[in-house]
Amino acid sequence: MLEGKVALVTGASRGIGREIAVTLAQKGASVVINYNGSEERAKEVKDEIESFGGTAKLYQCNVADFAAVETMIKEVVKEMGSLDILVNNAGITKDNLIMKMKEEDFDAVMDINLKGAFNTIKHASRQMLKQKSGKIVNISSVSGVLGNAGQANYSASKAGVIGLTKAMARELASRQINVNAVAPGFIDTDMTAALSEDAKAASVTQIPFGRTGKAKEIANVVAFLASEDASYITGQVISVDGGMAI
Ligand code: NAP
After folding, report:
1. Which tens digit of pLDDT belongs to each residue from 19-69?
2. What is the rounded distance in angstroms from the CA atom of residue 57 to the CA atom of residue 68?
3. Of the candidates 151, 171, 161, the residue with the CA atom closest to the CA atom of residue 237
4. For the stretch 160-193, what's the b/e string if a residue is b when 16 or more beta carbons lie within 10 angstroms of its beta carbon?
5. What's the gap in Å between 174 CA and the centre of ligand 1?
6. Pocket of ligand 1 (CB under 6 A)
7. Distance CA 174, CA 218 (A)
8. Residue bearing the CA closest to ligand 1, atom 6
9. Which of 89, 93, 112, 244 gets mutated to test ligand 1 (max ligand atoms within 8 A of its CB)?
């Protein structure tokens, strides 16, 4: 399904990004595993992909660093020959009520979650425009769709990702480049493991399916949007949240 395609997945050392990288590789793509700090875990993802005969490369880069992202994209294209799929998954939370939220916590979340996606699209789109093809999938969040108390920074960044997705979809459509977003609900990863049991239980009451989601349930939708099966879909936000945003 994705044979011959080159995919770059940001924040692929853990959680949802890891599952996206493995799923794209299972479908035949050569995958660049971007990570920031978790080198050992990124290597494990590479090993897993190679264990079933897939192709994977590691690339350390802080997506918030504009110049470093430019270098990463240039090196990926030089080494792999093309860039067909970009998945903007890298993200962080620094939750607090607005009265307690520090300016640096607002800035850090915006820099990684929103500006990080701008940085990669800015540099990857140059290559995709040349190729006259490409698939960009941005990971937003139910918090960006609905807003979430205690997450002013995160909700704003993820709503920003939706605006970025729609603007880019319009701008790149004439070259047949699809740009879509996936808005996960509550997914079991390190990010949500940090929540207290009470907070988790309260969240589950907001999920019509009555359970949290698995990273694989996000990765499968990303793989679909990255494939030719989704060739006529652009500018959309697909909620994968067990019904949370209904
Ligand atoms: P996670 O388990 O905390 O993993 C985050 C990933 O992002 C790690 O691979 C991390 O890499 C990477 N990362 C963080 N800062 C980075 C930076 N500056 N540059 C490059 N990579 C960076 O998170 P997750 O739950 O899998 O979330 C993945 C995405 O889904 C995020 O965008 C998140 O906002 C979104 N999401 C998650 C949920 C959920 O319930 N889990 C719900 C909605 C949306 P290193 O460890 O190498 O630093």
Report:
1. 999 999 999 999 999 999 999 999 999 999 999 999 999 999 999 999 999
2. 17
3. 161
4. bbbebbbebbeebeeeebbbbbbbbbbbebeebe
5. 31
6. 10-11, 13-17, 34-38, 62-64, 89-92, 112, 139, 141, 184, 186-187, 189-192
7. 28
8. 11
9. 89
Single-letter residue type at 76: V
Query: In the prediction, which pLDDT does 194 show?
Result: 85
DSSP string covering 186-242 = SB-SHHHHTS-HHHHHHHHTT-TTSS-B-HHHHHHHHHHHTSGGGTT--S-EEEEST
Find where tokens 């009451």 sit.
Answer: 205
Question: Residue 86 CA to chain centroid, in angstroms?
Answer: 9
Strand, helix or coil for residue 35:
strand
Does the model's pTM come out above 0.85? yes
Q: How many residues does the chain have?
A: 246
**Vertex 49 angle, CA 23 and 91, to 5°:** 60
- Give the tokens for residue 195: 């929540």
Based on the residue annotation, tell me whether 154 is a catalytic residue of this protein: yes
Residue carrying the six token digits 């700090």: 37
Q: Read out DSSP for 97-142? A: -TTT--HHHHHHHIIIIIIHHHHHHHHHHHHHHHHT-EEEEEE--H
